[in-house]
Write a structure and sequence with these properties.
It is built from three helices and 18 strands. The chain is mostly beta strands and 284 residues long. The chain has one domain. The chain has a 16-stranded mixed β-sheet that branches. A two-stranded antiparallel sheet has the order 17-18. A hairpin with a 5-residue loop joins strand 5 and strand 6. The radius of gyration is 18 Å and the shape is globular.
């Protein structure tokens, strides 16, 4: 009943805009000059999502938490985003997941310069790291399996202004001016993950009001995506996700099919958002 790599879905599928919109008009990488622009998030922001899986019946199987801090260290300040994903204790008996992702983002440009991903999924344990050298336009990456100790696999990947990791891309685009995006037009970025760089495309559908079970109704902007093929996804599924149409630009709901069944992620709790989270007929 448990599916493989639930938290990887939330990071690499929904929030990180993994898409290939083949039917829409296609555009090049859409970047924004964020120098001197205030981010929509702040230090201390903490957002938690509930993960649900269905194979006929929806079941809450785990959760993912995003925590943001600001580090004022030389040579310049940066945001440190930490993501922890886990299955609930009951499902640990079937397939225990404890995943951790860390990214460090330049506080001025909001582009990443370091990432680390450590996964423990059903006893399979692996650690990945990446160092971004903007001057040399390369990423020094390494991946090492930990449950069966092996030498780290190292590589040098191409780096462009459009290259992000699976968390920093989310924080970067939260701060962008969505009004500059055309609906039903596909935009392209690159995602660096596990010694590879993937070409990623994302598409904006437009505004929509969505009801998040147990929380309430939100005014949102709806996006669509297709997922990288692997153990969970065939590479042909379509994922939909909804981001608040307010100053926070925080995802509140994600839904996608997997090889067997479907997965949903919905916002559960939030703390220290920089702006009020706007809801239909109310403010929190």
């Amino acid at each position: 009943m448990m599916t493989h790599r639930l938290t990887t879905f939330l990071l690499a599928a929904g929030i990180t805009l993994l898409l290939t919109g083949t039917a829409a008009a296609q555009s090049d990488c859409l970047l924004f000059d964020l120098q001197g622009r205030e981010p929509v998030f702040q230090a201390g922001e903490r957002v938690t999502y509930t993960l649900s899986y269905t194979w006929g019946v929806w079941i809450n199987v785990g959760e993912v938490e995003f925590l943001t801090s600001l580090v004022k260290a030389p040579p310049k300040p940066f945001y440190h985003v930490e993501v922890n994903g886990k299955t609930y204790s009951f499902f640990d008996n079937f397939f225990k997941v404890r995943d951790y992702f860390s990214t460090k983002i330049d506080a001025q440009t909001l582009q990443p310069f370091y990432m680390q991903r450590t996964i423990d999924e059903g006893g399979y344990r692996r650690n990945s790291m990446g160092y971004y050298n903007r001057q040399s336009e390369v990423i020094y990456s390494s991946t090492q399996r930990l449950d069966k100790p092996q030498p780290a696999k190292r590589d040098t990947l191409p780096l462009t202004p459009c290259t992000f990791d699976v968390v920093s891309i989310f924080y970067y685009y939260r701060c962008c001016d969505f009004s500059q995006m055309k609906t039903n037009t596909t935009y392209t970025v690159q995602l660096a993950m596990d010694n590879e760089v993937h070409n990623i495309r994302y598409k904006l559908y437009g505004a929509e009001v969505i009801n998040v079970r147990g929380v309430g109704k939100f005014r949102t902007l709806k996006f669509s995506a297709s997922l990288i093929a692997g153990t969970v996804f065939t590479g042909e599924e379509q994922v939909f996700f909804w981001v608040t149409d307010d100053a926070n630009r925080v995802p509140v709901y994600i839904e996608a099919p997997v090889v067997v069944g479907s997965i949903r992620a919905r916002i559960k709790t939030w703390k220290n958002l920089k702006h009020q989270l706007l809801m239909e007929n109310s403010k929190i």
